[in-house]
Amino acid sequence: MTQTPLPPPLHDALVQLLGPSGVLTNPADTEAFCVDWRALYHGKCAAVLRPANTAECAQAVALCHAHNVPMVPQGGNTSMVGGATPDSSGLAVVISTTRMNQIHSIDHADLTMTVDAGVTLKAAQDAASAQGLLLPLSISSEGSADIGGILATNAGGNNTVRYGNARELALGLEAVLPDGSVLDLMRKLRKDNTGYALRQLLVGSEGTLGLITQAVIQLQPAPRSRETALCAVENPQGALNLFAAFRKQDPSAIHAFEFMSGTSMALVNNLIEGASLPLEAPAPAYVLVELASPRADDSLRSLMEDILGSALEEGLVTDAVLAESESQRQSLWMIREEHAEAQKRAGASVKNDVSVPLAAIPEFIADATKACEALIPGIRVAPFGHIGDGNIHFNLVQPEGADPAAFLAQDHAMMDTVAAIVRKLGGSFSAEHGVGQLKTYMMPSWRGGAELQTMRQIKAAIDPQNLMNPGKVLPPA
Amino acid sequence: MTQTPLPPPLHDALVQLLGPSGVLTNPADTEAFCVDWRALYHGKCAAVLRPANTAECAQAVALCHAHNVPMVPQGGNTSMVGGATPDSSGLAVVISTTRMNQIHSIDHADLTMTVDAGVTLKAAQDAASAQGLLLPLSISSEGSADIGGILATNAGGNNTVRYGNARELALGLEAVLPDGSVLDLMRKLRKDNTGYALRQLLVGSEGTLGLITQAVIQLQPAPRSRETALCAVENPQGALNLFAAFRKQDPSAIHAFEFMSGTSMALVNNLIEGASLPLEAPAPAYVLVELASPRADDSLRSLMEDILGSALEEGLVTDAVLAESESQRQSLWMIREEHAEAQKRAGASVKNDVSVPLAAIPEFIADATKACEALIPGIRVAPFGHIGDGNIHFNLVQPEGADPAAFLAQDHAMMDTVAAIVRKLGGSFSAEHGVGQLKTYMMPSWRGGAELQTMRQIKAAIDPQNLMNPGKVLPPA
């Protein structure tokens, strides 16, 4: 009756543990868990397990461990790098966290939220917001991505410039280790120097060292004032100089500092309805800056006006518009958020989620633009992204009217061209998205030697049978 | 001629590598490296090695590794827990980082400093300050403690409430692993999701996984405005409520938020010259709050006055004094900083560097006070510390006129009494100071099970011969 290669004793034990609806084996039920949302990877699995709490999860993992069955942790299935998709062998089980979805408490003294892994980021944000607090992490997939997944991948997003990545927000953590034992690090302590940083190690390990089941997330008071401006600048160096001007006055006021190239902005203005440029004329580059503070006084407005006033006088900023209402603010953010969609409508594109030191950004964009234009005449180099973190989405859009397939056939040439320049400048080939299975092949050349060796030693020590999310992060030895 | 148990070929190779002054074997030269500054531990060593750069350090470690010689990394030798002191066997070498003391660069675009492990924290702070920047970590031993040591122990201090511990400040890291290979993580990237968090793991591992040789430290713009106030409150809950009031308005303005019990303050006022209480009358408890911002406008002053005004009206604060000059500010800080000295002058004392969740602080202080007073009638319970981080130095001073030795003979009873309450409340037995050799015995009961097991697995994987700082952090299996 069951359509699974799981050993019958394991299958029966799992059904007894998790109930019939906790063990999916029908391909119609499991298929959605075996394909990533970008449909880059089509895997197979022996079953999808849906534990409802940590105890069930731990017992399920222990059973799989005893039977030597590989396990693929999966949250909202929004990985950009195939990090939560099983391979094509069909031997692994997917362990879905979606049933573990309780928000246990919000602590106003500690400003923390205790939450299960399967709660979506959006649900957690909303729960904080309903109590006048802010969960300061925002990514475009937040409606589906869950807390376990954002921690497993150390998610970033628009507010990293102010609050750091997911790792910095996790004050406590609980995870099930590959052998089914429970690692309980659910402490609410800002200072605790009692041994190795296991919490930080689990965060960002992409499910290869354990399955995150719960977390204590640090919250912030909700902003009571906010100022948002779209600014025209001459080039990336101008954007960086403007960032430095804001940072010099008050780094903690900068909640977002986003860069958009003129090329990418033109695509938005031309291809997205209702996204016309609210400035007098197109510019070579743009910055969207948002200041925010829990303070209700008007000092943020004067800070914004003072800095932009000086920048306009000096010619650093050539034009700027300040949001005068929440709806104007949302319009400015819409312009930023539509860059991915506009690029999609412009034809085939190749994405590079890279980071470099701030000082190297102008050289990176100039050199990489030149190299890509030399590689493919007519290519539209359309970078944008979180310039305050040094994180540029260096996206490449096909020449107008060109054949998309022919363009995409050169994707590796384009990616390698960009990567070579990133590397020369001390950057990273994955700023936000992680390694998953898409980028494991890059690990030996970029993170080789003692670094990769140490990662392998840690993996082998914690997961000697290589059962937890095999094939992710670390390439085959 | 040499007075060392080192195998002659190893000794000769080390002298050839490091020069005669780089290999100390004369007991008169090595003795200072074998005793911790509190003189709790008197160890011996086979030699003190003093490499001048990473390459020398790596080769020296490789040589010791090949000869199976244990190594004890040592920076400024300011550990509070014997973390940098060799054992009494005399078999280990101490590897001192004091010769590796170059500040390589300060990057104004990235706001980072690239620095050798052996640079003292004070020297690094001064170098940042000379360029209008702030290295936002401050501890009382900063004149001796070096960058390698503060990272190895994940140091905290007065500004953790705003900027986090040392771990949060280290953007890049270089370390020599136990086999002599160099782990180069000297990247200046705020976003880099390419594998396991080795940097975070090395930080706080107290030299047991490798020897930190260089770091990239994140800096901040120097404050241009600062407001400092000493406030009288009714009890620890009052201090916490005041903290919440400041945090609700602007967490990022709070550079320090320190608690002092009335008992501890009375010792300072009575025993330290020039440290009279600048308030009308003694109170049950006090808070020293410092706001700071790189903004030069006057909004910080109004923020301080608004919050304290409301707090005085509500009776949350019963009296307060604001520093009206830099010298008044320093006087207020002097009162805070003299607590350790005042307790020393009051006789024998027992120190507990503990943390609990913020919400649990009032219960912790009340219960631990009651329990200690029941244990030793007349004991002076004199807590103070970084209440904004939940970190209380719960110090116990002998009864007036009692015999110091008799009091100290009960130190374990006192520590265990305090620890039991900390543990019940989900706290930590070492908030700032680490484990070293002083507290390894507490690891199995506090961090046992999967947590200690995982730490042991990592240690065995990276240092299978147990050569790097053996006997620290992890107790014998």
Automatic annotation (TrEMBL), chains A, B:
Pfam families: FAD-oxidase_C (PF02913), FAD_binding_4 (PF01565). Its cofactor is FAD. Keywords: FAD, Flavoprotein. Residues 41-222 form the FAD-binding PCMH-type domain. The keyword Transport does not apply. GO terms for molecular function: catalytic activity; FAD binding. Gene3D superfamilies: 3.30.465.10, 3.30.70.2190, 3.30.70.2740, Uridine Diphospho-n-acetylenolpyruvylglucosamine Reductase, domain 2, Vanillyl-alcohol Oxidase, Chain A, domain 4. One of its GO terms (biological process) is respiratory electron transport chain. PANTHER family: BLL6224 PROTEIN, D-2-HYDROXYGLUTARATE DEHYDROGENASE, MITOCHONDRIAL. Belongs to the FAD-binding oxidoreductase/transferase type 4 family. This is 2-hydroxyacid dehydrogenase. It comes from Acetobacter okinawensis.
